[in-house]
Amino acid sequence: MKTFIKIIFPKKRKLSFIVWSLAIFFISSSASSADIDPQKLLESVDDNMWSNTKYIEGRLIIDNGRLKRVLEMVSWMEGVERSYSLYEAPPREKGTKMLKINSKLWMYTPRTDRKILIAGHMLRQSMMGSDLSYEDMMEDKKLSRTYKAEFEGMEDFNGVLCGVLRLTAHDKTTTYQSRKLWVDPGRKVVLLQKLYAKSGMLIKDIEFSGYRPVGKRLFPREMVFRDLLKENTRTTYMFDVIKFDVQIPAKYFSQSILKR
Question: From the CB of residue 134, how many other CB atoms can be counted at a distance below 10 Å?
């Protein structure tokens, strides 16, 4: 005996299609989220962004809502302890130098022919009127070593289904005690990052865009910082040239380089 199965299609096909699409979305979202190990994903993000040494040619575009300024600089970084930056433009800032060794930062300005030590809470002040602090600019820590990551779920950001990670600092002295990251789990890159004070207040956000291959890594072409304690400001950090694991002469991390 033959058995016949009769399939009845609903009259409201449009509604059925929407329901079916939503079901597929939630199934795929839950499946992809189940595969995410938050700490390992954070380590993969670090693998793209971090190296023992870096050389950067870049620009800071500072927009305070009324005026735009562009600072051009070159930077050398070694681990989390040492970094050196030389500003090449505009003329007013040309020749300004910054040297970080451990927790101390020295700044030299040719106009005064003096070097100034910036330390402690002063590191958290705005750097040259930008949305970055001195600490933001000179720091290069591995997030996976500084924070514990927890997975909060999947969210869409600019058309990309991202894993949302909540990061909690291991050390209570860390400037940003918590962060929230929107990570593309396929490419292992951050698209959005939110930074929180010890009180839990959201104080900054950073948007990453223009990822392109740099060797075996994916690195953003630009990062847009917004200090949310200010109104209508943003600072765009453009990476024109970046090289990883380069040899850096020892003289770049000596105070003698701060002389004219």
Answer: 21
